[in-house]
Every structure is written in structure tokens, then in C-alpha cells.
Amino acid sequence: MRIALVAHHESETNLRLVEAAPLGVQAEIVRPSRIRGWLGPGDAALARIDVLRSLDGMETGSWEVGLIENEGIRVLNPLSALMATHDKLQTARLLEAAGLPHPRTIHFEGSGDVGTIELPVVLEASVRVLGQRRACSARRRRQLTEALAVISERPWFRTHGVLMQELIPPLGHDLRIVISAGQVVGAVRRQAAEGEWRTNVALGAERQHADPPRAAIELALAAAAAVGADLVGVDLLPIVGDGWAVIELNGAVEFNDEYSLGSDVFAAAMNSLVDAIREPSATAIASLA
């Protein structure tokens, strides 16, 4: 079996995933422009196309991924899942439809009365942001007006508008769970830097070992299923009192050994994906026996 990891970058995560392919599986990072003709019957692709740094949409390659899907090649993280995880508005709609806890989300395109917006809110680009959530919070009407004035000058705002999301009271930490083919293969707790409410490592947050509680695991699995993603990072925020809320999904999630739950996180992810690819074939063989 050949597995093409469809991506533009040889990131640490992509390289480690390829290296972790089990015996009998040839895995390779393949650029989207080279993918057609590289795969044949019984092979599969893992799409890891990310968002553009300009926030204007996804990297190139969606057309090629769509073509091989139409040709009958098994695609993990299909185009529909990538679009659902990279477009935060679509993520919000799918989570709401599935009845999963997620901040109330409003799409603002620059016109309309913001005087009725329930505060506090978090303002974010509607496209998932590389590396960190470029979010700002507004707790007062004046803060919201000033933030919108700044954001409206950015090129991505003219293309996509901005999302206003309910501010879940920050507790200084969150949980990222990595799901692979319906299994939890990795997780990490992110502790925000002192004086910072956002839990991005790029903003000084510290990764810590995580032992995800059952409620968080069940929510992460349900969120991955709601967007149809095979390999995805699910970010959860704790809710004051009890429970969790899904804050974001990442269809091109980057992770490292710190996410380990006691075994090699990359081997666990690849083994789960390979099992998922082989399962339909095993079912078909059994039906013919």
C-alpha cells in the first residue's frame, strides 16, 4: 500500500508521520501538483493542506484532492473536512447542527448595527490562523467599536469579514486532543503565560502532559465526526463549574512527542489511519467468502 501525505511543507509532524508508517506501507510527502498518477488501486492519500498565511483561504491543492476523490482514491481528511476545519464559520455551523457545545458565533461583514451584540465577545478571522489564534476580546461597546475599526483595514476582513464569538471565561488553560480515525492518539494541556488569556505556545503558553477526562474525549471524538475529519486536532476550553466547549478544529494539526499518551503518538496516528484504510477491504473480502 502507498499513502501520499498531500502537503506543501516537510514539517516535523509530516516527516514523523511518514517515518511512522507500519511495515508494508510506503508513505511519502507528495505535493498536490504531483499527486495524480502517484496513487493506484488500494492506495490512499492523507490531505494535510493548510491555510494561507495571508488568511485568504486554503493553500493550493484542493482541486487536485477533489480530482483523486472523484477517481475513487481513498482520501483521509477529504476536501469537505479540510474546508470545514479551516473555515471557522463552517466549523461553528456544523458543531451547532450536531448539538455540541461551542461559543455562539456571529459573522460580521462590516455593515449592520453592532449595538445589539451581546458582550463580551472574541473577534477572530473566519479562516483558522496558522500558529496562533489572532483573537482580541471586547468586553465593552467602545472596545468592540475600536477593534472593528482596526480589523476593517486588514485585507482578510474585506474578503471574509470577521467572526464574533461568545467569550468563554478563560481559566488560563485549554486542552488539545489529537484524533486519528476515530481514536484518541495524543493530547496536551496548554497553560497560558502569566497575564495572558490566550493559550497559544507562540504567546508564551507552556505545553504540559495531559490525561484527558472521559467527557473531553467524548466531545473531541464527536467534534471530529461532525466535520468528517480523519486526522484532526480538537481544541477544548474548560467551562467554569464543569464541562468543556469546542473552540477550534485543525485539519492540518501539528504535534510532537509532548502529545504522547504513553506510546509513540506518530505511530499511533498512522496505525489508526492504516487500519481505517484496510477495514473496507477486509469487509469486502468477508462479504465474498
Output the keywords:
289 residues; alpha+beta; 5-stranded antiparallel sheet; 4-stranded parallel sheet; 24% strand; disordered C terminus
- Biggest β-sheet: strands ordered side by side in the sheet: 11-10-9-12-13
**Can you summarize the main beta sheet?**
5 strands, antiparallel
* First-residue to last-residue Cα separation: 23 Å
Report the average pLDDT across residues.
88
**Which residues form runs of ≥5 with pLDDT under 50?**
129-133, 281-289
Strand content: 15-25%
Series of H and E elements = EHEEHEHHEEEHHEEEEHEEH
Strand runs, count = 13
Helix content: 25-40%
| Cα gyration radius (Å) | 20 Å
Helix/strand structural class: alpha+beta
Number of helices: 8
- What general outline do the C-alpha atoms trace? globular
Topology, element by element:
Blueprint: E1 2-6, H1 12-19, E2 26-30, E3 44-47, H2 62-70, E4 74-76, H3 79-86, H4 88-97, E5 105-108, E6 121-125, E7 136-138, H5 141-151, H6 155-160, E8 162-166, E9 173-180, E10 183-191, E11 206-208, H7 214-227, E12 231-238, E13 244-250, H8 265-288
Parallel strand pairs: 1-2, 1-3, 3-4
Antiparallel strand pairs: 5-8, 6-7, 6-8, 9-10, 9-12, 10-11, 12-13
Please explain how this structure is put together.
Mean pLDDT is 88; it is low at 129-133 and 281-289. The chain starts with a strand and ends with a helix. The protein has 8 helices and 13 strands. It is of the alpha+beta class. It is globular and about 60 Å long. The strands form 3 sheets. It has a 5-stranded antiparallel sheet with strand order 11-10-9-12-13. The chain has a 4-stranded parallel sheet with strand order 2-1-3-4, sandwiched between helices. Strands 5-8-6-7 form a 4-stranded antiparallel sheet, sandwiched between helices. The chain has helices at residues 12-19, 62-70, 79-86, 88-97, 141-151, 155-160, 214-227, 265-288; strands at residues 2-6, 26-30, 44-47, 74-76, 105-108, 121-125, 136-138, 162-166, 173-180, 183-191, 206-208, 231-238, 244-250.
